[in-house]
Design goal:
A five-stranded parallel beta sheet has the order 2-1-3-4-5, sandwiched between helices. It has two domains: 73 residues, Orthogonal Bundle (Arc Repressor Mutant, subunit A), CATH 1.10.10.10; 165 residues, Rossmann fold. The chain is elongated and about 75 Å long. The N terminus is likely disordered. The protein has 285 residues and is of the alpha/beta class. 59% of the residues lie in helices and 8% in strands. It has 15 helices and five strands. Helix 8 packs parallel to helix 14.
Length: 285
Amino acid sequence: MTMTQEDTLKDLSTKYARLSKGHKRIADYVMGNYDKVIFMTVHELSTTVGISESTVVRFAHSLGYDGYPSFQKSLQESIKNRLTTLQRLEYMNTGQQEGNVITKIMHSDIRNIQDTITNMSLDRMKDIADTIHQAEHVYIFGLRSSRILADYLGFYLKFMHSSVTVLPQGVNDTYDELINIQSKDVMIAISFPRYSTHTITAIEHLKTKRVEVIGITDSYQSPIARIADKFILANFNVDTFVDSLTAPMSLINALIVTMSLGCKGNMEKRFNELEELWKDQGTYI
């Protein structure tokens, strides 16, 4: 069962009247404590509400889900942009031992990469790489933690494209740059929860100028995916107060390598020149 962003709670509210007494108890708790439920196991939820685990599973089935995990995943997708950093920190600090948290986070990163690989379209990746190659000028924009990804992508794209600009962080500085972007250019917009308002506003402005926008984000329901002409997705969870950029970084690595395959000759020439320059300047030990 697939729903658009924030539809899970709305759907639960709509179906509330026809739920059984036991299912209404679960629904009441979910609607009032969604920020906790997205992290709770079936056992934890059943114990908290005071009903059986099988009732929790039937509750998910009654809403049209395959089971509790699919209901929980849909709920996570619906509300992860609402979660404050404090809410995420409180979850991380609740009843978990240090060693368990560390291994859980690392396993979560592994799953995020695996899910990203499973859902990735190689044809879409190649199409986006071709679009970037053909652009007259490539602009990259990412704010908050996504700025790290923007800088990383920009660093490597400059080896493959002669005209690359990573837009500055300041709002006024960003708009000073936006006026220079033309229809033959491409904007790569990077945004993960919590989505930056300024990123969305900037690309909405570019769409009025008929600039092609490529999105790098986390789901079909994200604001970037809804606005961008093309996009690629990296799985993103909210297990801690830290934005885990492991899967997004891996996806960007894949995009960089895909682009490099289309310009081997030019890259070899450029790196030969750079190696000589780095050697003369003593850049590396």
